[in-house]
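Fold sample X.
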Amino acid sequence: MKPILRILTVLITALVLTACGSSAASEPEPQIAAGTYRLKELYDDEGTSLNDKLARLEAEGSTVTLVLAEDGTGTYHLFDETEAVTWNETSLTLFGETYTMEQTPEALTVHSGSGTEGRMVFVMENN
């Protein structure tokens, strides 16, 4: 009887450990929040800051905004031009190109391509 109890104990322990391990691995990915974002930082493909140029444009009253609707559509506003976008939890399609996207509590970053330093950093506007 003792060998059977030992085997059952080992099997139950293995099942419990497997269940605990899988729950940690299935944590949800951070989600991109729908809303209106203002361009705060801009870097070219070499990682060079273009923030001084962005500041001059803002001083002249020009802003760049990204509006993401909950249905996966949105608009990109660059000066007086508006372009339709589509998006999901990891990417943004703009001007026919798809870019990776990630969100932290501080910012929404749109990367200009795989392996490059180019990126646009947006902050959410208070609605």
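Fold sample Y, listed below.
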Amino acid sequence: MSEWEINKPLGQCHGTGKKIEYGQEYFGALVETEEGLQRRDFCADYWESRKPEVFCYWKSKLPEPGQKKQLFVDDQMLMAFFERLEKETEQEKINFRFVLALILMRKRILKYDETRIENDREIWRLRIVGVKQIVEVVNPHLDEEQVEQLSSQIGEILQADI
């Protein structure tokens, strides 16, 4: 598995370099770079005027020091991120999507249906609860440490306790 790190919010707009003040709304985003997915934060003004090209994004507020983080990511955002990764073939993104599937299963949004083997790959069929739509995810056979590391990174990206 390739190693990658997603930074915590730095309190600075990537587009303008201006400081994002505590309590100010900003947009967190994942951007595809040559090094892989990277987190970038943009102040609301820059975001609204420039609409930078990103892989996915979420709106948040920079918390005061010591203030408990508020969850700005809802289940729909997690599901949209999961679906956005569906056609990706890079191992890093397959791993990321698999861990997102585990999180969505824990939240009872996805339910395991069955496993099938295709081209020496284990593919899980999952049902979206309430919709009865089937989605598939490749099981990359991550070890417990890899799953924990990716879960932590997803939590940092989304500023949520995953």
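Sample Y note: The CA atoms of residues 82 and 97 lie 6 Å apart.
Also: Strands lie at 25-33, 36-43, 56-61, 110-118, 121-128, 133-139.
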